[in-house]
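Chapter summary example: a protein plus fe (iii) ion.
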Amino acid sequence: MRYISAIILTVLATTSMAAIAKDTINIYSYRQPFLIQPFIDAYQDKNDVTINVIFAKRGLVQRLRAEGRNSPADLVLTVDIARIHQFADAGLLQPVRSEILATNIPVNLRAEDDTWFGLSRRARVIVISKAAGDIADLRDYEDLADPKWQGRLCSRPGSHVYNRALMASMIAAHGAEAAQSWAEKLVANLARKPQGNDRAQAKAIFQGICDVAIMNSYYYGNMKFNDDAEQRSWADAIRLVFTNQADRGNHINISGGGVAKHSRNKQQAVAFLEFLTGEVAQQLYGTVNYEYPVNPAVTPPAELASWGPFKRDKLPIERLAELAPQAQMIIDRVGW
Ligand code: FE
């Protein structure tokens, strides 16, 4: 996948020169443009509206704050609950009362004060080498602390938001002390210094560097159907383990969004948010990026469904954001 570094990129999405749209939605996004464009195209098929996307890898909270009342932003889209929460914490989002959003999004995946909304579900799972004979011993995140995996585990750095949220979920489940002890043992099992992104862990399994890793499940789909044969071979080397099926369910994170505090097109922004939670868009999250719908009435596309149904952690997702600073302290302490 392409990486667009710190450059801020503006994508003007217009259907045709003839359609001079009356309405505009300006989106500030931490989500990559190629992941958003299919949703914009689907929306513009039915709606005469201009949608502009300002993408950045970082700094959007600061930018919104600096712009204040003059901000052109109508909508904020991000991945990871803690990042959405930063906007809400800074008072940069406004509450949205919408029957449609309340119906389409489970209560644990949206803000109590209606400032942000989960739009897709992302499962962080354990992956294990197909060549490993002992997959049955790996059921729960807790199992990663077992010394039997010593020298067999690979991980990206703990301080990445994905692992920080996972760490937060362990604190929520067991308390800080037990969670730290788990993290210490996990680190002791590492085959190499934490490095690389999620895909790099699958690659390491393919290369025989380790047998077990942690990965967001959508990367499996992205690698399995990649144009690059090398990535397809990484996917082919692993199996997914949906964890904690006998207790709380697999750890979940979200992509989400909210309406900017000073939006001048609130009605349009809310309508687009509502569209993102409806049947068409919820299916798109699955086909575009192998993410799961939040809307319980929508069944995931066939490929996603084929990975198996699984029990999901029902923890109010907001807890992950609240516990993120504590999670980071533990991560630093144990050197993950
Ligand atoms: Fe990702």
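Key point: The first helix runs from residue 33 to 46.
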